[in-house]
Amino acid sequence: MPQIVFCLLWILLQQNTVQPFLSSQFNSSSKRSFDSWSGFLRASKFETRIYSEISKESTDLAEWDNTGRKGRVLVRKKDIPSPEYSSFQVCEKVLLALQLNDDPILDYGAAVAIKFASSSNEISKLLPNQYGDYLRASEFEILIDNSNFNINSELEIGSSGKKCVHRVEIKGPPPAFEMRSLKLQLSKESLQNNSECWMIDSISTI
Question: What's the pTM value of the predicted model, to 2 decimals?
């Protein structure tokens, strides 16, 4: 029996059929190994990038927390929610901070707006730089690039006394000085210390 097998192999070698077969098997195996390794590297790079982004976002969140490096500036300047602030004062604080958005640090105004955003306001889930980028690329750019604003003294108050609407007239930058009208909707919300504070639900155009 071994002799028969040997003879068959010798015949196949003479006909150049074994070498291509072995070569094809090797190439196929190598290709599978290479593809697997390439896939592993791509997955590793993707996971590393995702981890880096999550890590950076966590760091940014910690910095803007009330006890963080940037958050302490908000506390020191009293640009955080307080039951002492009326709805008018909340609107004024946020609009002033946005008007001077990068003072004293980049996107500080956006950070103030986020601090005063209610839980139903989508911007409450953003980082200051993310909200700043959104404003700079949207119709609300006038909030961070205006000459002055005026909050209408007339106030629309809900029957519960816990919801209200302020109307604002904003003058854009020179030379056009475009005038825009905005509407700020606010509601009273209980924070972690159980104090009810006026928070902004939304800002929309009129």
Answer: 0.72
Tokens of 196: 């009810």
Radius of gyration (Cα) for the chain, nearest Å?
Answer: 32
Contacts of 91 (CB under 8 A, 6+ apart): 151, 166, 168, 184, 186, 200
- How is residue 186 annotated by DSSP? E
Residue 24: is it exposed, middle or buried by C-beta count within 10 angstroms (0-12/13-18/19+)? Answer: exposed
- CA dist 105 and 79 (Å) reads 14
pLDDT of residue 87: 96
Extract the residue ranges of the chain whose pLDDT is less than 70.
1-58
pLDDT score of 118:
97
**b/e 157-194 (16+ beta carbons within 10 angstroms → b):** eeeeeebbbbbbebbbeeeeeeebebebbbbbbeeeee
Report how far apart the first and last C-alpha atoms of the chain are (Å, whole number): 95
HSE-CB of 115 using CA atoms within 13 angstroms: 28
Query: What pLDDT shows up at residue 33?
Result: 59
